[in-house]
């Protein structure tokens, strides 16, 4: 602020009389900050400072209270188990996106999975993330709250209009056996040491969404061989031409993708989100491969712009000797 | 040889330039024998120049016209508009955008074009506002241009032995020209032959008496000698033949005009105010920007993210539309004033003159004509120590009056009729005397009419008493003698006029009206008394001395409210003495002042911190006009030079128009405050999203582009509409504002706009934001530090409070919907802000809602917001998304709160005048 404030402070009279010849004193910046003679700091004396500070404290307390009051009233109208707007026609919509793991929280902008098969420190983080992610399916306390579903049992039985029909109903349990059987578990560090990493694919949870089956004649050719009714199929490939060449063999676990019995989702404490895994069997070494994985169901549309129905990530498997410093870069 | 002496204030940076101009100028054309002069110019008395020769000289000397004052080149003006003030900050913002974009582009595979677009938008904004301001400026200077070229003049010259009508611009040195009464002297002339030739030098020297001109050289001083007629003065009567000795800028007039153009008039008060304000805002922007740049680093954000924060803070801080709003407000007022005969001349952004007039604390009115509308009437006669009142109504035609036509009265009438050069224009015998048109000085016209009424048929009376000799009045002799067959004697008479109560109005508005005139002190004092410059009951030192019998020297000067200062006294005064006189007296008349002294007087007032308006019409006034904070020239009687030096022109030469100007100026100052308070308030809800975004890591509640939509879209019309607001009280009954204390933007305004209302608006915005987030699944507590995941393209499955997973694209749609809703809620709280900004003291109930422009503004901003919100295609362009109907209303309670809070605040101001609330919040 300017040095002129001092004057303004001294005389806040509504219309100061221009007749008074103002005493020509030096309004130096220093004396504005602290004026010993008048005992003012930043143009105000102690009393004036106390008054204005007290005023603002009271003002902001009242304003804060008013705001919190409004917020509390509003939040009391919110259902803790069902958002006001969900599903078709809302912002979140009814077309799920696809997520993947491992994704590192400390490098949130990156979708690159990069590791050296000769150096377990380079993939320890990824293994850790996957381990964490899969742990909840085997955690005793949560599995107790789920039930094994078989036959036609599904979460549709316990969910109605986006909510659990009643408290305490158990959703279907998701089991990792199939992944273990295919070499995608902690036991073999999810295939990382062999350069055959497993990547988890999941479908975004949307309240009240469940997959619809493809009619027999419209099953996309990418998944036609593996497709099973009631499931969500996945297909991964290189994003661009060269990637497609290098990506090599991909194993889908399970073959048919995610079982539809785990849908629809509703807010509950112990929902087991179904996942699928893809294992890349012969990735090239020291070369980035861009991967695109698409989810297929009758009511999933893939949109590259908004990344709905598909996900992108990159893989880079290195095989440098650990002892040699990486001079030629990666 | 001559020398103009102008007193300049010490330390004036233009002093050296002035000194150069003040250098002595050799001039001997009036002294050398005519033959020699003709030889020098290679001309012939009878045949004039040959056309060929004239062309040669024309090529050498250029046209015979005053070159316009040095104007800043157009491109510099344009650049000033483009890079001045806030524009610079915005340029920085735009450049940062490009930097951020290019870094993104080269390092990230998914680079977005958001920053590129934002940079382009910012640049467009700067360029458009710059062009707009430039256009405003140049448009107004064009008006002025056309005003200047309104009257083309011609001169009668002899070329190749034949008389030809030439445009005055074509005249060259050596031309023989003929002039007659009524002409404007086309160039500096040496008179060769004269028949009763008289010129009115008032525009040059300030002497109102016409002076005769003859071929003889009577004085070494070219200003005093009789054989020179000066360019741009007027021939009053007679005819003359002369040889052109100087043309264009080399004429005496040209030199003075240049002197005037070099006096720095400094910045107008509002320009200072706006600069002050820009400094504050820029300071805040830079401070906040830098602080949060550092904080962002400390919190571990990437430097590029920190740069994006910086851009956001700059854009949020700068009220982009404000300068345009101010320009429009001032232009509107200027238009309104022009319709009331006050033409604001706004060369080089002098638009602010409007407001300057409002803060005027002293008016130096020079011409009695200005005060009296150039119509004087004899109202009182002082004769034989008695004052008689005359009938001044126009209907009065009776000439058989009951005045004692003997003795003193008779001689008075005789002198008034003979010692008088005013004449009736022919062919008006049937017109009532008071309405007849005359030639001559205003005071002499009054006398002529008076004597016509009381003696009858003056023309004949004058013929009976022919004039045998005359010493015209000039400021050196200070008397006029004309010898007629009857002898002459000095008598006192006074006359005066019906004046609009303009002076009284000025006084009630706290404005000192000072008269600076070339008239005789007695005349001046009488005029001053009758027009109210010296109010009834005020006494001068001389009056006191007469009343009490104490000698003048012993009278306590503090007792005298009024003072009449003679030019000779002034000459001997030191600046300090002048300072004392100005300080001690409220009512001052400066009589018999030389043009140079006017400048001194103006400076004297300015030294006291007064804002001085000067009125004037002559060339000699132009330095004072220029020096004044606001120079007011006369549209009808004013000379071109004075109009050029002035900031404002009274089209009807009426003093009352100044009062109108003052009123408008004060109103616009008040309204600008309101407008700025309104505009600044929305800065807080614009900045706070960024701060909260950085500090709490919530998704950004308001985007940069949306901020621009507010500043340049919805806020513009309402802000401008405040210029149409009516005054809250009688603004002409309060004192002029004190420029050092009553700032346009003061800390009370900032405190109210930023600290109080702005904060309510910000919480309203956040309330809306949390409302929409919660409606879609993100409850407030889950938003804390979610930013890095929210903004990461890598995360395609971010969980909300209900466990639903959001893709990046959907999150962004939600975020932009929040931006839109935040934007809409700002519009809604700005409704209330607009209503409370209508008044600074009164309740809205007292003020009413009759400002239809403002009412339109309310509707307009709402419609614009709805348009931006729902127009298809704008979701990509502006990132604005359609809102559900219910999302329009979360801000309403806060809007109401603003209104109620401010009504209470203003009630307190009215209830406890001078109280704490007023001292801290009345802006």
From TrEMBL, chain A:
Cellular component terms (Gene Ontology): sodium:potassium-exchanging ATPase complex
TM stretches of this protein: 49-75
Compartment(s) where it occurs, according to its Swiss-Prot or TrEMBL record: Membrane
GO molecular function terms noted in the UniProt entry: ATPase activator activity
Chief localization: membrane
Residues in coiled coil: none
Gene3D superfamilies: Na, k-atpase alpha subunit (2.60.40.1660)
Pfam families from the UniProt entry: Na_K-ATPase
Comp. bias regions, Basic and acidic residues: 1-10
Biological process according to GO: intracellular potassium ion homeostasis; intracellular sodium ion homeostasis; potassium ion import across plasma membrane; sodium ion export across plasma membrane
Topology within the bilayer: Single-pass type II membrane protein
Residue numbers spanned by region Disordered: 1-22
Keyword entries, A-Z: Membrane, Signal-anchor, Transmembrane, Transmembrane helix
Family: Belongs to the X(+)/potassium ATPases subunit beta family.
Annotated protein name in UniProt: Sodium/potassium-transporting ATPase subunit beta-3
UniProtKB/TrEMBL annotation, chain B:
Enzyme Commission number(s): 7.2.2.13
Subunit and partners: The sodium/potassium-transporting ATPase is composed of a catalytic alpha subunit, an auxiliary non-catalytic beta subunit and an additional regulatory subunit.
UniProt cross-references to SMART domains, sorted A to Z: Cation_ATPase_N (SM00831)
CDD domains: P-type_ATPase_Na-K_like
Chief place of localization: membrane
Transmembrane residue ranges: 82-101, 116-135, 277-301, 307-330, 749-772, 813-832, 852-873, 885-901
Protein's job: This is the catalytic component of the active enzyme, which catalyzes the hydrolysis of ATP coupled with the exchange of sodium and potassium ions across the plasma membrane. This action creates the electrochemical gradient of sodium and potassium ions, providing the energy for active transport of various nutrients.
Protein's organism: Acrobeloides nanus
Entry-linked NCBIfam families: ATPase_P-type
Keyword terms of this UniProt record: ATP-binding, Cell membrane, Ion transport, Membrane, Nucleotide-binding, Phosphoprotein, Potassium, Potassium transport, Sodium, Sodium transport, Sodium/potassium transport, Transmembrane, Transmembrane helix, Transport
Enzyme type, top EC level: translocase
Molecular-function GO term, any one: P-type sodium:potassium-exchanging transporter activity
Subcellular location: Cell membrane
Membrane topology recorded in Swiss-Prot or TrEMBL: Multi-pass membrane protein
One Pfam short name: Cation_ATPase_N
InterPro entries (UniProt xref): ATPase_P-typ_cation-transptr_C, ATPase_P-typ_cation-transptr_N, ATPase_P-typ_cyto_dom_N, ATPase_P-typ_P_site, ATPase_P-typ_TM_dom_sf, ATPase_P-typ_transduc_dom_A_sf, ATPase_P-type_domA, Cation_transp_ATPase_P-type
The Cation-transporting P-type ATPase N-terminal domain, residue ranges: 28-102
Name assigned to this protein: Na(+)/K(+)-exchanging ATPase
Alphabetical GO biological process terms: intracellular potassium ion homeostasis; intracellular sodium ion homeostasis; potassium ion import across plasma membrane; proton transmembrane transport; sodium ion export across plasma membrane
